[in-house]
């Protein structure tokens, strides 16, 4: 029994489809194991001994491949498109399709930034399923100057189509003359979630880029380029959020994530000690920090932008 694997998980690990769609194929009688149709979702197999066919085609785990890609805007996050639009797969080597590599989650057409693609079904599930609460960090430029009380609503959850989002973390705010740059972290992946959250509070997004997934930062990867992830990076990607980062937040009230003070002419970031966790991700948003006396007790970190 040691080598037994759930059938739907094996199909997903072979890069054939997602776990959920694999379950539907099993229930529809489209899967055979050693020549026998299997319809039970609890079925297991031994990958080293059993022969699995899906829709008559034999499947087996391909070469494991996981890459990070800097998705440009105006490109669809899909393996194909019926409207003749460019997809992320059109910008990647043809062999990726042959290996069954597909995107983990989605970035909408107008959003750019970090996208992970893999043919490892288990890895895909670990990153994409909201139960695992993998961080997705976004740098957003929004219309207007959202006040603190507006941004605090993100920690409570924003109602979208009658359902409240999971709590989000606002790590940083830079207020300019008519717009603001906001760094926000979510753990879900609902359709156009970040854009719809800002729309719901009256500050539509002008530009949006994902800069981090889990512990993996976009770094300086050029737009439209990709690179293979090393095993250590994949392991770090799935690592839990640091306990230190959680302890750095003010203990009195979970809403106390921002300071009401505006420093200078909007060329400063005001954030909680949680923002310190960003320094270990190696993202391009890293800034030199300086904390004024007295701010430590309030859990406030002051970081200045370079001109």
How would you summarize the topology of this molecule?
Elements: E1 5-6, H1 7-13, H2 19-27, E2 31-33, E3 36-37, E4 44-45, E5 52-54, E6 57-58, E7 66-71, H3 94-98, E8 102-103, E9 112-118, H4 121-128, E10 136-143, H5 148-151, H6 153-156, E11 159-160, E12 163-164, E13 169-175, E14 179-186, H7 193-200, E15 205-213, E16 216-217, E17 226-228, H8 231-237, H9 243-247, E18 268-272, E19 300-304
Parallel strand pairs: 9-15
Antiparallel strand pairs: 1-4, 2-3, 2-5, 5-6, 7-9, 7-17, 8-9, 10-14, 10-15, 11-12, 13-14, 15-16, 18-19
Brief rundown of the structure:
By secondary structure, the protein is of the alpha+beta class. The protein contains nine helices and 19 strands. Strand 11 and strand 12 form a beta hairpin.
Characterization of the model:
The chain has 307 residues and is α+β, with helices and mostly antiparallel strands. 19% of the residues lie in helices and 26% in strands. It is elongated, with a radius of gyration of 22 Å.
Q: What does the overall shape look like?
A: elongated
What is the first-to-last residue Cα distance? 62 Å
Mean pLDDT, all residues: 80
Report the radius of gyration as a whole number of Å: 22 Å
Q: Estimate the strand proportion.
A: 25-35%
What class, by secondary structure content? alpha+beta
Keywords:
single chain; 307 residues; alpha+beta; nine-stranded mixed sheet; four-stranded antiparallel sheet; 19% helix; 26% strand; elongated; disordered C terminus
């Amino acid at each position: 029994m040691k080598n037994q694997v759930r059938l739907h998980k094996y199909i997903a690990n072979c890069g054939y489809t997602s776990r959920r769609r694999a379950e539907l194929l099993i229930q529809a009688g489209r899967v055979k194991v050693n020549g026998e149709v299997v319809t039970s979702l609890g079925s297991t197999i031994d990958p080293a001994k059993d022969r699995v066919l899906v829709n008559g085609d034999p499947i087996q785990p391909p070469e494991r491949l996981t890459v990070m890609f800097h998705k440009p805007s105006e490109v669809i996050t899909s393996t194909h498109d019926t409207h003749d639009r460019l997809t992320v797969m059109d910008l990647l080597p043809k062999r990726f399709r042959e290996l069954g590599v597909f995107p983990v989650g989605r970035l909408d057409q107008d959003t750019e930034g970090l996208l992970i693609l893999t043919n490892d079904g288990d890895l895909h599930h670990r990153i994409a399923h909201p139960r695992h609460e993998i961080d997705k960090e976004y740098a957003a430029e929004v219309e207007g100057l959202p006040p603190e009380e507006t941004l605090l609503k993100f920690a409570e959850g924003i109602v979208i189509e009658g359902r409240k989002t999971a709590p989000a973390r606002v790590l940083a705010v830079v207020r300019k003359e008519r717009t603001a740059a906001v760094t926000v972290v979510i753990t879900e992946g609902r359709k156009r979630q970040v854009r719809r959250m800002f729309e719901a509070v009256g500050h539509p997004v002008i530009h949006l880029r994902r800069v981090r997934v889990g512990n993996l930062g976009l770094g300086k990867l050029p737009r439209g380029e990709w690179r293979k992830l090393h095993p250590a990076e994949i392991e770090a990607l799935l690592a839990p959020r640091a306990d230190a980062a959680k302890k750095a937040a003010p203990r009195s009230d979970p809403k106390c994530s921002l300071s009401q003070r505006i420093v200078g002419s909007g060329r400063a970031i005001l954030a909680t000690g949680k923002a310190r966790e960003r320094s270990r991700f190696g993202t391009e948003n890293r800034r030199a920090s300086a904390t004024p006396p007295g701010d430590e007790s309030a859990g406030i970190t002051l970081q200045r932008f370079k001109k």
